[in-house]
Write a structure and sequence with these properties.
heterodimer; A: mainly alpha; B: mainly alpha; elongated
Chain lengths: 339, 338
């Protein structure tokens, strides 16, 4: 167990190396002049592009550039993002809490709802509710994120006018009643500051983006849950439990469902990836100031420093979360042995 | 005691059995969802092929077809019919603009069946957008399939350092969410549907390669391959006659599912603004248009529903259809299912 964790941890720098090589390598498709753009912060510098190329060694061979990039990166210098008019690292620090907040709220809904509906569906196999849920699930995971977002906006914001559509809080509220930034997550910050009106407003703003992020994930997780539970229900020990005279409820919930939930843990990796790529589109639709909407703007504005910093950051999150999930899984399931 | 064999399960072939009466086809026909999926997929295919008949060319498109205004394309004996279906000029993909109004007009006005958004005919955009989606699917799925099979086959059959190198590369591709890596590559190459297709090919082969490698690793040690080798079959004959045909089933299913995911990923990128110039018949852009008209005119907040509803419905129907078809194929082709 311990050796497994240590070995996985040891592989982390290797994966990071590959990831940074990929990102810096992709940049080589651009000419030195185009790459120089990520070093420009003011108009004055525009006149000295050749100087910038010389100073940063942008015309040097790849390994020199990579070494230089690595040196800068270890000092927290990932270039300047045009899209946010801030250095890349500052942008990430400023915007990531908003994305994290959305992802946390979304995952609070995804797993419980998917497990609950998946159980209902499997226990009533081929009954009306199961058929309904299967159709809804197919529709759910077929829907592209941007279509879900637009439809929700049209119905709840446009037609019914019951929910706010854009931003983290009302613009007026952000100006008249600013919340001091502590964690960057506005719900927590507003609780810390005791500003309940901001909290309620922020929560209202989060409903539609969180729904957009959750619907697709729930649909796909629900399907896996249903199939897992159906497999487990056929197992010998479930039959034994029934033969012993245990109540249906006891067998279904305590014996069967517990074992069916385990594979859902492995799905968590996919959920995190889904939430991160979903964030790009969701945040763009709802003008939500997280890193996803920044990544999208950076791509559209051809802000290479921004795009690469964004991709690298997402890559790091995915790699680390996969590692954590692997380790967690070996704790949850004693049958899993790694050697 | 019966002899233990690792050869693929021999299917009892009854005399006169064709693919139509074989088990997968029978299983497919019995599944109502499969038939619904097939029907929807066929409808979209027909719509893509016969786009010029469903949304007739107008304006620049007619001019580039070298015909005056007022001549119909419906006559199958005229060369115009075939020309517009087989090689429509690029200008036909520009959505016909009925007016230059700044607000949408409802369905039925000025001959726009589904209304217009900023003067762009929604029906025209959706029909030709289907054609765009199919062009994209074909130009992405076929190359990814070939590259994936080739590289996956190389890795699986020869193993060793080729395998190691390719699979580590695949690992790195899978370390990032697909959409984000596609965004990175598209932003490097520049905007446009062709760049999106290129990015999707560059990343898409990895999935196929991994699956085909896994299948080959599973198959190559089976006895029937050994038997083929013992009978003197060369590497190529083993690969093409014995290994690949048995490894293809999961690949076919992924390819069918990719047929719907490819245009949808492209639509998502297009929605973000990395796709086509304004006015090109493309689903992502039509939804992006809808974003401008979320709130209706004053007094009727739901007034512009058709701008977002029709494109969303089209995309959903397309995606559900192909997903049902793909799932059903997977179930039908799975030999373990009874």
């Amino acid at each position: 167990m311990l050796t497994f964790i240590l070995r996985r941890l040891a592989s982390l720098p290797l994966v990071m190396l590959a990831l940074t090589l990929l990102i810096v390598g992709l940049l080589q498709f651009l000419s030195p002049r185009e790459r120089a753009a990520s070093f420009i912060k003011s108009e004055n510098q525009m006149r000295n592009i050749d100087l910038i190329i010389k100073e940063n060694g942008l015309d040097q061979p790849f390994y020199v550039q990579y070494w230089k990039w690595l040196g800068n990166a270890t000092q927290g210098n990932f270039g300047f993002s045009k899209a946010s008019s801030l250095p890349v690292l500052d942008t990430i620090i400023q915007r990531f809490p908003a994305t994290l907040e959305l992802a946390i709220f979304a995952s609070l809904f995804i797993i419980p709802i998917a497990v609950w509906l998946g159980t209902l569906s499997a226990l009533g196999k081929d009954k009306f509710l199961d058929q309904m849920l299967r159709v809804i699930s197919v529709i759910g995971y077929s829907l592209p994120v941007f279509v879900v977002g637009i439809l929700l906006l049209v119905v709840f914001y446009g037609a019914l006018g019951v929910l706010p559509g854009f931003g983290r809080t009302d613009t007026v509220l952000a100006i008249t009643d600013p919340v001091p930034v502590v964690t960057g997550m506005i719900t927590i910050d507003s609780i810390l500051a005791g500003k309940w009106n901001v909290l309620i407003n922020a929560l209202q703003h989060m409903i539609l983006p969180v729904m957009t992020l959750s619907i697709i994930q729930v649909a796909s997780t629900l399907k896996v849950m249903r199939n897992q539970l159906l497999d487990v229900l056929k197992a010998d020990y479930v039959r034994t439990a029934r033969a012993k005279g245990l109540s249906d409820n006891m067998v279904n919930i305590k014996h069967a469902r517990r074992n069916a939930i385990l594979p859902i843990v492995t799905l968590a990796g996919f959920t995190i990836q889904g939430l991160l790529s979903g964030a790009v589109i969701t945040e763009t639709i709802f003008s939500y100031p997280g890193i996803g909407s920044w990544g999208a703007t950076a791509a559209v504005q051809l802000d290479y420093a921004g795009v690469m910093g964004f991709a690298l950051f997402i890559g790091v999150i995915v790699v680390i979360s996969n590692l954590v999930i692997d380790i967690l899984y070996s704790f949850f399931d004693p049958r899993v042995r790694f050697d | 005691m019966s002899a233990v064999t690792t050869a693929p399960v021999t299917l009892t072939k009854t005399a006169g059995e064709t693919w139509w009466t074989a088990r997968p086809a029978r299983r497919f026909r019995k599944n109502p969802l499969a038939l619904v999926g097939l029907f929807i997929a066929l409808c979209f295919t027909i719509m893509a092929i016969f786009a010029p008949l469903l949304a007739t060319p107008k304006g620049n498109c007619l001019r580039d077809l070298d015909v005056p205004e007022g001549i119909s394309v419906y006559n199958p004996f005229a060369p115009l019919f075939w020309k517009s279906i087989l090689v429509p000029p690029q200008s036909c993909f520009n959505v016909h603009r009925i007016s230059f109004a700044s607000v949408p007009t409802p369905p039925g006005v000025d001959g726009a069946i589904l209304g217009t958004s900023s003067g762009y005919d929604i029906w025209y955009g959706l029909v030709w957008g289907t054609r765009t989606a199919f062009q994209l699917s074909l130009s992405v799925v076929i190359p990814t399939l070939l590259i994936g099979i080739f590289l996956g086959g190389l890795a699986g059959f020869f193993g060793g350092w080729i395998d190691n190198l390719l699979m580590r590369f695949v690992d790195v591709i899978f370390a990032l969410p697909g959409l984000i890596l596609t965004i990175v590559i598209v932003s490097l190459f520049g905007k446009g549907l062709d760049k999106i297709a290129l990015a999707l090919v560059l990343l898409g082969w990895a999935g196929y390669a991994r699956v085909i490698r896994g299948e080959i690793l599973k198959l190559r040690h089976l006895e029937y391959i050994e038997a083929a080798r013992a009978l003197g079959a060369g590497n190529l004959r083993q690969i093409f006659r014995h290994v690949l045909p048995n490894a293809l089933t999961p690949i076919i299913v992924i390819a069918v599912l990719d047929f719907s995911t490819v245009p949808l990923s492209a639509a998502a990128l297009s929605f973000l603004g990395l796709g086509t110039p304004p006015g090109y018949a493309d689903w992502g852009q039509m939804v992006a248009f809808a974003r401008t008209f979320i709130i209706g005119p004053s007094g009727s907040p739901f007034g512009y529903w058709y701008v977002s509803f029709f494109p969303a419905f089209f995309i959903l129907l397309f995606s559900v259809g192909w997903n049902l078809l793909g799932d059903a194929l997977r179930d039908a082709l799975d030999p373990r299912e009874t």
